[in-house]
Amino acid sequence: MALLGSGGNGIADRALDEPRNAKTVVDLCGYTMNLILQERLFRSYPLFYRKAGDELSECPIDCWGIEVADGWFELLDRLSAKLELAITDLVAGGLPLDECPRAAQIKQKFGQLQVHIDYMDKLPNSIDSDLSLAEQVANETCEKCGKPGTVRRTNWIHVACDQCEQRRLEGADNGHVSKTELDHHFRALTALLENRSKGGQ
What is d(CA 116, CA 183) in angstroms, rounded to the nearest whole number? Predict the structure, then answer.
């Protein structure tokens, strides 16, 4: 799994000129996908992850990006590919882009993957089963590393493998995050979100 600020040459990679600090922010601030992987999704599926157009208001993803950890990247990649294809078909059929579905929020809540989509009603019924499958796979996949995991009901509900859960319980992923590190991370995140296209642009 790529680390923040490594393995790429896009917006996120250029913005993260202190990769150690950027990685630390993500490790210690909780479960959020590193910016290299977020950028990969945004570039691969520009219709689904497009910025709000004139007819759409901003949603949580426009402020916070993808609010799940790296371990769920592959299942989101597969789901996003199916959503992108469905949106492409809608555009080809004459639906204005501002009326097409797009990602509104992707997060974890009570251990469950939640994918919220604007204009969900425009998608074919088959997408419902794709979303259900992604949620089921997430429920059995460690959110941190992507290995097989189980739902953990401790001080907060999450999905983790035995190794990642042990590290969490031992405090290996905890520590102090400075204001500088936080500022650095959110500047990079803002740059990444601002540089998404509005779809086809």
Answer: 27
Confidence of residue 85 (pLDDT cuts 50, 70, 90): very high
DSSP collapsed to 3 states, the chain = CCCCCCCCCCHHHHHCCCHHHHHHHHHHHCCCCCHHHHHHHHHHCCCCCCCCCCCCCCCHHHHHCCECCHHHHHHHHHHHHHHHHHHHHHHHCCCCHHHCCEEEEEEEECCEEEEEEECHHHCCCHHHHHHHHHHHHHCCECCCCCCECEEEECCCEEEECHHHHHHHHCCCCCCCCCHHHHHHHHHHHHHHHHCCCCCCC
The ranges assigned to domains in the chain are 30-188
pLDDT tens across 109-161, in order?
999 999 999 999 999 999 999 999 999 999 999 999 999 999 999 878 999 99
Rounded CA separation 145/70 (Å): 6
Q: How far apart are CA 28 and CA 176, in angstroms?
A: 8
